[in-house]
Please model this.
Amino acid sequence: MITESQTNAPNLISKLIQMTAHQRVLAFASLVVLLAVFSVVSPNFMQMSNMLAILQATSVNGVLAIAATLVIISGGIDLSVGTLMTFTAVVSGVLLTNMNLPLPIGVLGAILAGAFCGFCSGSFVAKMKIPPFIATLGMMLILKGLSLVVSDARPIYFNDTPGYDEISRGSLIGEILPFLPIPNGVLILFVVAGVASYVLSKTVLGRYCFGIGSNEEAVRLSGVNTDRWKIAIYALAGGICGIAGILISSRLNSAQPALGLGYELEAIAAVVIGGTSLAGGRGTIIGTLIGALIMAVLTNGLRVLSVAQEWQTVITGVIIILAVYADMMRRQKSK
Amino acid sequence: MITESQTNAPNLISKLIQMTAHQRVLAFASLVVLLAVFSVVSPNFMQMSNMLAILQATSVNGVLAIAATLVIISGGIDLSVGTLMTFTAVVSGVLLTNMNLPLPIGVLGAILAGAFCGFCSGSFVAKMKIPPFIATLGMMLILKGLSLVVSDARPIYFNDTPGYDEISRGSLIGEILPFLPIPNGVLILFVVAGVASYVLSKTVLGRYCFGIGSNEEAVRLSGVNTDRWKIAIYALAGGICGIAGILISSRLNSAQPALGLGYELEAIAAVVIGGTSLAGGRGTIIGTLIGALIMAVLTNGLRVLSVAQEWQTVITGVIIILAVYADMMRRQKSK
Amino acid sequence: MSLLVEMRGIEKRFPGVYALKGVEFELRKGEVHALMGENGAGKSTLMKILSGVYKRDGGSVKVDDKLALFDGPKAAQNAGIGIIHQELSLMNDLTVAQNVFIGREPRSAWGVIDEKRLNEQASDIFEKMNFKVDPTVEIGSLTVAKQQMVEIAKALSFQSKVLIMDEPTAALNDIEIAELFVIIRRLKSEGVGIIYISHKMDEIKKIAERVTVMRDGEYIDTVEAKDTPLSKIIAMMVGREVKDETIDIPDLSNAPNVLEVKNLNRGKEIQDVSFSLKKGEILGFAGLMGAGRTEVARAIFGADPIDSGEIWVNGKACRISSPKDAVTAGIGYLSEDRKHFGLALGMDVRENIAMATLSKFASSCGVLNEPEMSNVAHKYIEQLGIKTPSDTQEVGFLSGGNQQKVVIAKWLLKDCDILIFDEPTRGIDVGAKAEIYKLLESLALQGKAIIVISSELPEVMRLSHRIAIMCQGKLTGILPGGKATNQEQIMAYAAQ
Amino acid sequence: DEQLYIPLISKGFQHQFWQAVKQGADQAATEFNVRVTFEGPDTEAQVDRQIDMLAAALANKPDAIGFAALDSQAAIPLLRKAEKAGIPIIAFDSGVKSDIPVTTATTDNLAASALAADKMAELIGSKGKVAVVAHSQTGTTGVDRRDGFLNRMKDTYPNIEVVTVQYGDGDQLKSTEIARAILTSYPDLAGVFGTNEGSAVGVVNAVREAKVENVVIIGFDSGSAQMDAIRNGLMAGAITQNPVGIGYETVKAAVQTLKGEAVPSIIDTGFYYYTSKNIDDPKIAAVLYK
Ligand SMILES: Nc1ncnc2c1ncn2[C@@H]1O[C@H](COP(=O)(O)OP(=O)(O)OP(=O)(O)O)[C@@H](O)[C@H]1O
Ligand SMILES: Nc1ncnc2c1ncn2[C@@H]1O[C@H](COP(=O)(O)OP(=O)(O)OP(=O)(O)O)[C@@H](O)[C@H]1O
Ligand SMILES: [Mg+2]
Ligand SMILES: [Mg+2]
Model:
């Protein structure tokens, strides 16, 4: 996949790759191995169309995982990413379909709604000193309920908003390079990833994110208003979930109010597979991206091999463990 | 509830209550408040039959939460409790129904199967140095699949094992004190809780559990074989999940292979609401018990008030946050 | 005379660091053998190899003339080697007694712990050291000093025949140090061999028979303590003469007060403390452990809430409810506990140095200028002689003393008008100490106001223009610094 | 051998109803000697997961696809893609808002649960309070079965009050707890309708545990727990669709289409109301799964 997207953002990707090397996110190797194995075992796996399907499948979980990465690096955890995504999708549905507002407003509204919810979770954590797990668990339930309330427990379709589905299904790249019809959803994923890793590695916010995750008290005693930064981090993550909400609703051309439960686990899994520590203080976006890809490749590959579904689950479990194990081993060596 | 069960295990409960006071698990107050509010709002709430329903609803999640507590105190996390429960239920189904073995063997088999799976997760964590989140996530998927494989994706009924459903539905206490038909499932929950908190507070295993959660390296430098103890902790937790497996399958008089996903979150929530820190090193079983009761009371109460379901979720989220917030406030004061 | 420990040609490499280059070391029965060297010389690493924490890359270790290949701490313990690590390694959520006996709890067959005996045994040990602490309190609630004493008690409880003490006195003050020396002498008489690491030079003369000096991971020499002058040992450590000439106290009679603390109160720990600090002044704080100096500092800095009292900066009363407020008001605080309150161990040297000043390096939209950060970091790495392979090395991998230097760099860079240094030279070698003293003096000359809290009286007296003494949360007196005051006078106020 | 390959993308997998559909599909597979795979997401909410499954299925260049849409529109782009590739789509269980599917093998959930309402009314004398334990608040089957029941009650039985509808995700334990709560809050409850196996069995468990008498329970689907409950009278009766038939007809229709034979645009596999009396009729027994 990396090679494919090089065409659209070469310097970004090359930077990401450097970082990979730098941060020793060796899950990358496991990803390559997986791709190799599947292409050998199934002729149908390594087709452009299927690669695109995999990327498409990665886009939503990938964006969610990026949001989760920010929070996790800062030493917290966010269980609300999944239902927050759903909620923002519903919000944009209400704005666009029920209120007939123009498309940009829907998109903006979703992202703002996401940021606001993130802001709330952040305040619970920073101001009310509620453990992130509980704060975001509560938020997850609240949003799950609200999505049903706001949408009246029915999917909201975007049929009267022409072009909404293009946001994720269309392909700008495809129009320029017809042989490479990468869906915009994937493009957006990589852009979000690029921006996020830039923010993490190059800005004050990013530095405090790592600092707070590594030793919050030390940062506070350096005269930093850690509470405000924590809230900012959760809000940013929320906004990113808003983007995920746009992606999924445009892909389904509808806001599905019941969706999103259990997605938080997959997102967090991608983060951890990507080498980010749940203890906080260390992690990379590129790692998360690779983690998300590993999961997508795995699921898709096993389906293409049409393995019986119950065995798909078993194998996924085994391979996730092995992938991380391989990673660990290499880290040990490199130590 | 506490008062009710006092009759059957006075010293145990009084001990537990002392510990509560000692450990400042003030979630207890929130529980009382909840009970009070619901009994005022709904005349039907505060009936013996409904209290029993709540206790019974607590039993499974409570036992799972106790298992999770052990692992979390030791600084880990166990996402596999839910599917492990299901798997052990299926195992006992296979032993009793498919193989027609006597009841005790089924029970023992389930518990051993649970302990073995815990042993595996533990080894992944301790020996292969895989982050607990991933190790148990993998285990969760593996077991989810295996349950379907072993049971051939069909529920296994215990119709030809007379008395199996009595394990959780019957009431030994009821036979002695007819006015107090506390189901055995609840009895088992409290026994498990008693044993677990004894192990935690009085035995070497418990001591190392806290030690490892507090500062694993320090424990290791003191010449303790932390790996072995970690494995032991996960195995113990697994065994307890086995008990949960018995409880649920006896209550449904069948092993439902599809059940158990999402139960891990509820269990962990109960643990954290009960004041156990996800960072490890601190926590109590009684706290977890109270956490589980809070959740059960909440769900039951809102259902009894037949609040619209979407609002039930919202309110649950809000109250979980408030309960923990109240707890935090009191801790602050008491500091 | 039989050798307890014999280490020959020990080699150790870390990524980017050649930590030990063929180090020699030997220890006799019943001797106290001091291991000296600058920060980062390799002392702790050598000891970690001897105690089975690290595996060596080369060389041989003999214990009792038997080749020893330790595969872990347990093995070293069984071979009779005990160690007090430089960095506290405690389980904060367990009680004092539980910490001391972790792994060796008195237990029944079923693994049930006899908590009563546990606490009794702990009390016994503390009695012997006549160190007063309740064995049933959570250790996390004790001060660094007390925690250090517990670590010592723990090491003693092993009754090992080799006892390694890696900077045991860094966090202690004279009284506790005296207690420790009593213990050490007793152990000696019992034939225990003791390896003693410290940067407090005067201690060497007091208890060590022999001194082995290391520099940059190399073995320099082993000499008899009594017939080698300190200056020579220092020269061997640093590779040059270190002279620390004092300058005479400037006249600040008409300098303005930059900081005035009025009737500060916080629980029992701070009781009605008032004092003022002049522009260009260095105010020393002396006192016994638990005197409350750290509490005063933390209160002024807004790290802990206060019950009552006022803090005036430059003649204006200001509300300081958080460290952020304090820093905005131009106050900086270097904590006595670098590991918990000073450093983000997971982050690199550069980031830690810049932690308090990030916004200075950021553009309007919050983008950091990393080259600039590196330049600044290098400036301080030079100035303080921080021993690190690069400015992007993880601070956690630095030696203790070098970590302390990083924290100091952070606050020097912040350039506050009022600096509060709590145990600034804890674990810092002689050479660097002299450097830091000079630095503080030059800062004072530039018109900064500085508070130095130190448990080393000589240090307080060496630096301070005035010396404030605390006892049990009260400020008991303020004496003139320099020659004007002697230890006895200070102790009189400290132990009221 | 050029065996035909027909993947079925279902709405669910673990639930017994879908296992029964799978069973029927497998029967047809052996009968017509074609290769069939069967997949479905964990919950009926995961529309996007189903799309991914469809995409993966298409990658395998199947001869035909059986598809039970979780959302009537979300999959349309992919279905068009299939159409372009000349892969016939057979919809099953619930339709797609599009003319792409060659046919739809389904039963009318609305009508089926309306029948449940009639039976309930009959048994409680057309008056009193009834409750519904449904299995999904958003999934089409769940919504149809709920609304079919509610609408019939509203339109035809003014004296029957549906006091509450609560959703247990078809999870037996959750449904049990819900039903117990409902029984607590409505001591005078006359009947409960469970909209799928998990919900119905949950209601049965609750009634058994709470030891309440004379609450009329009407269930949906089969499964041995539910059938036992009907046999020993705890449950008055249940509606059953013909899941095995749905699976079978789907594959059969696919094969016929590939052979170029004509298939009807709707294959109604029908539904039945069964009680302890007719549970063993061959016609009924044939459509019940254990
Ligand atoms: N785990 C590690 N990884 C990388 N480098 C290390 C590690 N531990 C020590 N070092 C490096 O090895 C060298 C020696 O460190 P050591 O802690 O032994 O010094 P020291 O003599 O104890 O210094 P101090 O007096 O400050 O304690 C230092 O340069 C340090 O940065
Ligand atoms: N983290 C803490 N938790 C609880 N009590 C503390 C803590 N730190 C200090 N104290 C208490 O506050 C009082 C003063 O603390 P501290 O010993 O740090 O003062 P000090 O004068 O700075 O002594 P020193 O710095 O030499 O240790 C003591 O009674 C100590 O027990
Ligand atoms: Mg050292
Ligand atoms: Mg202090």
Q: What stands out?
A: Chain A touches chain B through 48 residues (CB under 8 Å).
